[in-house]
Amino acid sequence: MLLSRFFIPILKENPKEAQIASHVLMLRAGLCQQSASGIYSWLPLGKIILDKITDICKNEMLLAGANEILMPTLQPAEIWKESGRYEDYGKEMLRIKDRNDRDLLYGPTNEELVTDIFRTHVKSYKELPLNLFHIQWKFRDELRPRFGVMRGREFLMKDAYSFDIDYESSIISYNKMFIAYMNLFKKMGLKAIPMKADTGPIGGDLSHEFIIIAETGESEVYLEKELLSFEGILDKVDYDSNLQDIVNKYTSFYAATDEKHDPKAYKKDLNNLIKSRGIEVGHIFHFGQKYSKPMQANINTNIGSNIPAYMGSYGVGLSRLVGAVIEANHDEKGIIWPKELTPWYYNLINLKNGDDDCDNICYDLYNKIKSMSKTVLYDDTMDRAGSKLAKADLIGIPFQIIIGPRGINDKIFDLKDRKNGEIQKLSYDELINFISTN
Ligand code: P5A
What we know:
The strands form six sheets. Strands 3, 7, 8, 9, 10, 11, 12, 13 and 16 form a nine-stranded mixed β-sheet that branches. The chain is built from 13 helices and 23 strands. The two termini are 19 Å apart. The chain has helices spanning 21-28, 44-63, 77-83, 85-88, 111-121, 167-187, 226-229, 244-251, 318-328, 356-371, 385-395, 405-410, 428-437; strands at residues 32-36, 39-42, 67-68, 74-76, 94-97, 103-106, 130-139, 154-164, 193-196, 206-213, 219-224, 255-257, 273-288, 298-299, 307-308, 310-317, 330-331, 334-335, 346-350, 376-379, 399-403, 413-417, 423-426. The structure holds '5'-O-(N-(L-prolyl)-sulfamoyl)adenosine. The site of '5'-O-(N-(L-prolyl)-sulfamoyl)adenosine has 20 residues, from strand 8, strand 13, strand 16 and helix 9.
């Protein structure tokens, strides 16, 4: 991609409305733009990252055996009246009337709608277990939208819903999602920690939040120190195997959000218990028959008929994750994309655009990098050298290849690692060799 053709409206100054690093950087590096309080347009760089996060999440859901569907953003009020949540949801729910005076709402979550789909089509235990997921915008009229996309009013969520015949099988479905979550966050280059959590308006008896430790996080959390360095044994998971042991390994550590924190339940050395803050990037719930019973989503089994299905629901905050990834990966100069999510791997910077030697070398490298099937953003703009370098640090691509007249004379090329700032001085062949192996 040529930077001169890429729409990336960079802000020179720190925007006043932003209080935390990720919000500042998302606005400064042109990832998004506020349209109304808590509602954002996604600009090209932001959209690329949002799509990468979405794809990783979607692929893991498919690996775990879930089926992708797409439910609408608008839902009829009737099904929420059936479940009893229409009044409970209060002012957070955006209620709309259509021209025929029918009550609609912009979905804050989809337990009711998916239960309605399920009860229309599934009657027999032979069709279970079933997991349906979708990726769709949600709306919650949050009291205090803040920190940019972290607490938005309109936000993108992946939400999955499991249906099972009895309690035991529904725990198997819950465990599958638990492990899929550990895996998908890892594939995004993130360390998410599962914590015992409150169930709030979704309901149920068992729930975990997935938390990324960050000072600016909105959740107060308590955890055992060892968890910070605990590496799971995940990657290629057989989702059809018994996952209880792996789940037990994660949950054998003490980790709870403040609502669930119980100092009496922590039996080990108190010096190892730390209080921290974190960002909730995912939340899973097991709630049995809470929706299936009132909505009569019943199953016929070989031991009885009309048994309400056992359900769970599983959410990932996809748009929040863009902010969370930046919160976990930045310095005072800008974003530092993890390799798993970076939009390009190399940022080729021509310090003297218009100089024949610089232009020739840069186009040669630009084409060579692409021919090696590596991704590259080429800064071919007419900006000053200093501002190009600052922009590259702000955008945060892992490797910068910096080309200027001085280097060309000496046949030396600067390769900068964005993460540690180290610059290697390489010959042309060494540079090509580096690119082909990284
Ligand atoms: C689980 C899936 C649910 O809604 N129903 C369907 C369940 N859970 S949740 O915890 O309320 O939300 C799931 C994830 O969505 C993100 N999230 C938000 N992101 C941005 N702005 C918001 N206002 C917001 N609210 C929730 C979180 O990552 C949360 O874990």
